[in-house]
Amino acid sequence: MDNYHKYLHVSDLDKDWQFYVNTVGYCKTNKNMHYPDMSKHPKDHVFSWNKGRILDGYYIVFITNGSGTFESAKTAPQQVEAGTCFILFPGIWHRYKPNPLVGWEEYWVGFNGAYPQHIMEKFFNRKNPFIKTGLNKDLLAAFTLLLGTVSQAQIGYPQLISGIALQVLGLLNNIRLADNINNDPESIWVSQAVFMLQNQLSNSVNMEELVEQFPISYSKFRKSFKRLTGKSPNQYHLDLRLDKAEELLKNTNLSVKEIGYHTGFDSPYYFSRAFKGKFGVSPKIFRTKPA
């Protein structure tokens, strides 16, 4: 692939979308080449190793070959190997460069807006901006699609590429969570419990009995479950059953009583009260509301 990059004009319409991309690119830096090539980037993006730089948006850099070094005001110098993404946060001084003995290949996307700001600050870590992706084919395909869409520049493409950038974030978050689970036994047990609960929508579940099969106390499991899902095990299972009830109310002719039975509610009164607590109306009224 030939080196390619584009710095995009961001219109008021793009900003109204609340997720806009301002740059995409691919660059192969061979060994012993000067880095970065200051002649090919705008002044607010070029930097020297001695001075580093500070940007005002979010950037994802995906290293697909070679190796190098990265450091920031929040991160000590670290080696970066192929199959690694690192994230640049607005207002954070940073610098990075390929190893001059081997060079590297990099893809990047820069973006900003109210929506990505919420995602980046809630789900990603300024102090640990590295995600070891390996040579993930889905991630590589997303970056390739970004470059292709920008180069074609069809009408409406700024909104298309914001969607692709969001896909990149989703892939990185998925990789990050999977890595956390693989390195955290409690996460593995919670994931197994979630799978069991998803397959027990027609029954109530005794959580303490369920947890007996894991080498962990119920109190510790409950804390881990809430930390990873945001809900207690019982509330998580209740919400799954109510979501299933909502689906059945929308898509079947089963009676309200039958739907309550199919989602593990022995008491029609309790089913109606729980459903109203989540959706604001009783199951009967929910079914009669216009779509």
Overall description:
The protein is an alpha+beta fold and 291 residues long. The chain folds into two domains: 4-182, Jelly Rolls (Sandwich); 186-288, Arc Repressor Mutant, subunit A. The protein has helices at 12-16, 114-123, 137-152, 157-182, 185-198, 207-211, 218-229, 233-251, 256-262, 268-279, 283-288, and strands at residues 4-7, 20-29, 58-72, 75-81, 84-88, 94-98, 104-112, 130-132. Helix 3 runs antiparallel to helix 4 and helix 5 (185-198) packs across helix 7. The longest helix is centred in the middle third of the chain and has 26 residues, at 157-182. The N and C termini lie far apart (49 Å).
Question: What is the fold's blueprint, element by element?
Answer:
Layout: E1 4-7, H1 12-16, E2 20-29, E3 58-72, E4 75-81, E5 84-88, E6 94-98, E7 104-112, H2 114-123, E8 130-132, H3 137-152, H4 157-182, H5 185-198, H6 207-211, H7 218-229, H8 233-251, H9 256-262, H10 268-279, H11 283-288
Antiparallel strand pairs: 1-2, 2-7, 3-4, 3-5, 3-6, 3-7, 5-8
Helix pairs in contact: 3-4, 5-7
